[in-house]
Amino acid sequence: MNILFLHGLESKLSDPKRAILEAYGNVIVPDTDYKLDPNTIQNLYDEYKNQDINVIIGSSMGGFTAYHLANSLGICALLYNPALPYRNKIEQIIPSTLPINNAPFMRIVLGAKDDVIKAKDNLNYLAQHSNPTTDYDIRIKKELEHQIPIGIFENETKAFFGKLGY
């Protein structure tokens, strides 16, 4: 299995989280600079559209990008506090030319205590932009802030892959 992991705005995949993901497959982590590249979605699509990517996992701005890539590539995604409703400060172009293949399954983990990306704003976005062919599993974690602690990451990743039969 090939796992595409998209990090947040100014973060990287930590070694402990990488180790959790490596239990499920090969982890691919592109070094993305969202501030300098407003065409990140298109560039990642072009890079990975012909590769064997089985799932996409993204956090924050990486969750925003993963949401759009998963819906273009038609693959399952796990999103942690995705920046779906927020793009005012960082320009990211959602290409109108990308194919629409709708992800079959998305697990979306939101933090009730996240003051960077409010859970209610993500829920409003999803209510307006969800599609009828995707099975959404939305989890609001009462103790979760914007950063994803290793325990929550491990449990949610395990649940995601369990739903997929791994």
Short précis:
InterPro entries: AB_hydrolase_fold, UPF0227/Esterase_YqiA. This is Alpha/beta hydrolase. Helix 4 links the parallel strand 5 and strand 6.
Verbal overview:
The structure is a single chain. The protein has 166 residues and is of the alpha/beta class. It has a single domain, classed as Rossmann fold. It is 33% helix and 19% strand. It is globular and about 40 Å long. The termini are close together. 37% of the residues are buried. The mean pLDDT is 94.
Number of strands: 6
Q: Report the average pLDDT across residues.
A: 94
Largest sheet: 6 strands, parallel
N to C succession of SSEs: EHEHEHEEHEH
Q: Could you say which structural class the secondary elements and strand pairing correspond to?
A: alpha/beta
Helix content bin:
25-40%
Give the strand content: 15-25%
Number of DSSP helices?
5
Identify the CATH architecture: 3-Layer(aba) Sandwich
Distance between the termini: 10 Å
InterPro entries: AB_hydrolase_fold (IPR029058), UPF0227/Esterase_YqiA (IPR008886)
Organism: Flavobacterium degerlachei
Protein name: Alpha/beta hydrolase
Key features?
single chain, 166 residues, alpha/beta, Rossmann fold, 6 strands, 33% helix, globular, Alpha/beta hydrolase, AB_hydrolase_fold, UPF0227/Esterase_YqiA
Topology record:
Blueprint: E1 2-6, H1 15-22, E2 26-28, H2 40-48, E3 55-59, H3 61-73, E4 76-80, E5 105-111, H4 119-129, E6 135-141, H5 150-163
Parallel strand pairs: 1-2, 1-3, 3-4, 4-5, 5-6
Helix pairs in contact: 1-5, 2-3
Pfam family, one: UPF0227
InterPro entries: AB_hydrolase_fold (IPR029058), UPF0227/Esterase_YqiA (IPR008886)
Protein name: Alpha/beta hydrolase
